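Q: What would this complex look like in 3D?
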Amino acid sequence: MNQWKQGSDARLPLYQRLREEIMDRIASGEWPPDKPIPTEAALTQRYDVAVGTVRKAIDTLVHDGLLERSQGRGTFIRRPDFDASLFRFFRQVDAAGHARVPDSRILARTLEQPAEPIARALALPVEEQTLKLDRLRTLEDGSVLKEEIWLPATRFAPLKEIELERFGTLLYPFYESQCGQRVGSARETLTVETADQETAQALGIATGDPVVVIERVALGYDRTPLEYRRSRGPAATFRYQVEIS
Amino acid sequence: MNQWKQGSDARLPLYQRLREEIMDRIASGEWPPDKPIPTEAALTQRYDVAVGTVRKAIDTLVHDGLLERSQGRGTFIRRPDFDASLFRFFRQVDAAGHARVPDSRILARTLEQPAEPIARALALPVEEQTLKLDRLRTLEDGSVLKEEIWLPATRFAPLKEIELERFGTLLYPFYESQCGQRVGSARETLTVETADQETAQALGIATGDPVVVIERVALGYDRTPLEYRRSRGPAATFRYQVEIS
DNA sequence: CAGTGGTCTAGACCACTGT
DNA sequence: CAGTGGTCTAGACCACTGC
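A: Here is my prediction, written as structure tokens for the whole assembly.
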């Protein structure tokens, strides 16, 4: 019954060791993401602990956003929630009060030797090639974003061939279906700069106007960097909110 | 033994009703903030539930940041953690690589009839007066912030008399000691604008340079708005980060 | 040493989901 | 209806804190 892996520190509380076990299973892809993970009863038997301990381990993972429970159906591996993304904070309505349809267009695709900061963000050796996408996005409010996206070329090889029109508005499901690469989390960084002439033109603002720069590193469930993205949008339509407690 | 208050919906799980009870006690100030709240055993008896239920209620409150446990000492009401504040994201080091000593100076104190948006943020009728403070802050990195602070004048009456030099760098402990007003949480909003001449001069940047505006509403433990604050700092030294999962 | 929270167990019963 | 997670109980033992 006792199917513990090696290496977990026996001094840690049981529920924490169990938590590590479950995270390993998720990272390794051992449990398919569209089916429930083993039931509480199954885990209880497999690891020879009490239900309460299994519940506590799962509780912490639910809390950290890795799992999601659904009464009567089971416990599932959660997809990251990009509602928390900084992109959400471009204003919901444009100057005329209209909400426009979000849209996305790939302008260019090139193979590129990554510059040092990009290679570092992707944890790639600089010799490795990246697939670079230039993209123009329209958000719900009509704001325009100019995006540069770098992907490790070997991992995303299939994307080299596919026609640009077939890239959808949502890239992550596309990565998953075409390349089997699943995004499990991401880290975003916000800074502000002033628009140079080219950016200003693309965003429909004046040169020198403030621009919000959002950088994102997207990671797999095993924490491998999968995508590095740098997006620029007009700062005038940006409004971000935090709760402190 | 059964000391439940009225009004809690009997259809809710016990631990959620207990949670509400505890939140009420905190909001009402019934439990002093510097002493532990009643022990698990005491709550078990007082509300006639099992320890596990008390633990679960407290767990959720710890998780939401209202309480804080300390093994062997007890469970305490937590103070809000302003490390989560957006202010933390002005760069840690200035252009010369020095870290300077944070500082703060009150430039002016006036009684003001609040403009409509400020009255709304403080949930005050526009007839109510506010005490307005103008303040210049230096952060660890040497960035300068220009701050405007509005307080409900009646609630903060003692501050009308005190000499400006006696206002410390940290205002919240000062509010508490002088006026008995404790801050329990806050909401911050970030936007970007360009510096007008006056702001540019105060911040030591050029007119038209981008400026980060942070608005903050600070609330008491009972969710009453206590302070509205609007701060402006140079956008060039600002860098904010979020995790998505 | 007494008192506190932390971990772990064992099991009852309820509520929801899919068939 | 069978199977899943959700709530609640009761109690043992451990680890830390302050006296």
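A: To summarize the key features: Residues 36, 39-41, 55, 69-75 of chain A lie near DNA strand D (CB under 10 Å from a C1'). The beta strands of chain A are 67-70, 74-77, 103-112, 130-138, 144-152, 183-194, 210-220, 225-234, 240-244.
Q: Very helpful, thank you.
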